[in-house]
Amino acid sequence: MNEFDKILISQEDIAKRVKELSQQISRDYKDLNPLFVCILKGSVIFTADLLRNIDTPAQIDFMSVSSYGSGTESSGVLNIKKDLSVDIEGKHVIVVEDIIDSGNTLFNLKNLLLSRNPASLKICTLLDKPERRVQDINADYTGFSIPDEFVVGYGLDYNENYRTLPDVRVLSRCVYEK
Ligand code: PRP
Description:
- 24% of the residues lie in helices and 31% in strands.
- It is an alpha/beta fold.
- The protein has a six-stranded mixed sheet with strand order 4-3-2-5-6-7. Strands 1-9-8 form a three-stranded antiparallel sheet.
- Strand 2 (35-40), helix 2 and strand 3 (59-67) form a beta-alpha-beta unit.
- The termini are close together.
- It binds 1-O-pyrophosphono-5-O-phosphono-alpha-D-ribofuranose.
- 1-O-pyrophosphono-5-O-phosphono-alpha-D-ribofuranose binds next to strand 2, strand 3, strand 5 and helix 3.
């Protein structure tokens, strides 16, 4: 059985794009000492690579969240599994995600973080699936816009597997439909 249909984004293309994002964010946040908020677990590898190339002073913290359901009915429900360890009031916050799908997670998370009065709040995502969006939310920094396919690797999982792959791959239907 071949587990993957194809490599969607190669290791080289990811490295090149992540470096570009780092350079752009470094320019935009020069002397602002931004706080990067890594959303566990999916964005841990992206965050590490992104921050490796940031060349202005910065801080990092971690959060683990999930949103229940989809659509407007459950749009206010955010489950915080692990909260930040620092107060973000007055800080320039950049939320780092691996993927925006329906947008529910970020929509809820953004509202929560804004209620804590940061100086500014922006979103950086490696992948964006605009076709799947049910919330009116977009990233300020996007690595790649991708079609509506089941992707794994570079932090993204299926049943907690495949996060350690160095590239982003399309998972074969036979893996998740069996
Ligand atoms: C994924 C991803 C986002 C969210 C995106 O997290 O990291 O947080 O789903 O989906 P949405 O736009 O439809 O809300 P997941 O809950 O799979 O956790 P993980 O990062 O630990 O894999």
